[in-house]
Write a structure and sequence with these properties.
By secondary structure, this protein is an alpha/beta fold. It is 23% helix and 15% strand. The chain has a 3-stranded parallel sheet, covered by helices on one side. The chain starts with 5 loop residues before the first helix and ends in a 5-residue tail after the last strand.
Amino acid sequence: MRRVDLTQVLELQNQGAQLLEVLPKKEFDERHIPGAINLPLSKFQPSELSKLNKNRPIVVYCWDYK
């Protein structure tokens, strides 16, 4: 695991990485990176990971713009 900035996240997305946003749905709906998947931590279940492609990198982020 490593920290990356927004520019790096977008580069990773362009290279095929999946973006997983962990904020609540309301905040996700207000603002998120296009193409991101919303999976709020408060509702996280291991079964939800089936939505992700295990053959592609995953970037987990929390868009805290406050």
